[in-house]
Amino acid sequence: MSESDTSSESEPDGNAEPIDEPKQGRMGLVVSTLFVGAVVLFAMFASQFGQDKIITASPLIGRSAPATVLPYLERAGELSLADYEGDIIVLNFWASWCPPCRLEQPDLVRAADELTDLGVTFVGVLFNDDAGAGSRFLDTYGRSDRAHYVLDDKSRMAFDFGVIGLPETFFIDRNGIIQAKISGGVSYELLTATIEQMILGNTPDSVKTGELQTRD
């Protein structure tokens, strides 16, 4: 065998294709990347639910409330927010699977029982859930006979109000103007303080200061 033949067998070809990584290794990398991405997306999505109790700015604040009509959750008929113009409306979006919704429900019931006679209408909007689960939720965590519960099964009202997480609560004044929004679970103290300012015809202070509210 000549020297040239030996050289051609021992030296790598400069134009040769690089050796592929094992397919199994590459597949593992892809799966790991997808898993990490899914975890990040889930965390971002979940962070929208059960937010801190804070009155937050919304593009709708200062504008007329959308005139959406929805069916009642547990009785025949429909509810239109326009029917309650002249009242202060507390509009709460909730679902049976939402943990902060369970925590805030007793406070919403108490506020509705106590404040309805002052011209305050409470409306609970079941969103992204089914009617049966919603009724069982009310059986467990309480319902006010003075509040109205409606079913937003097609997400019409949630879309109109720009709901991005649960729970969310909107405060609408006697002229049908949205004055405030609370992202996250509400407390009785926060509800009554906000409504008291609106009864006096004032803009709730927390809209301006962004003050965090905590449950006692």
Automatic annotation (TrEMBL):
Residues 59-200 form the Thioredoxin domain. GO terms for molecular function: antioxidant activity; oxidoreductase activity. Its main location: other. Pfam families: AhpC-TSA. GO terms for cellular component: cell envelope. Residues 1-23 are annotated as: Disordered. The chain crosses the membrane at residues 27-46. One of its GO terms (biological process) is cytochrome complex assembly. Residues 1-14 have a biased composition (Acidic residues). Keywords: Cytochrome c-type biogenesis, Disulfide bond, Membrane, Redox-active center, Transmembrane, Transmembrane helix. CDD domains: TlpA_like_family. This is Thioredoxin domain-containing protein.
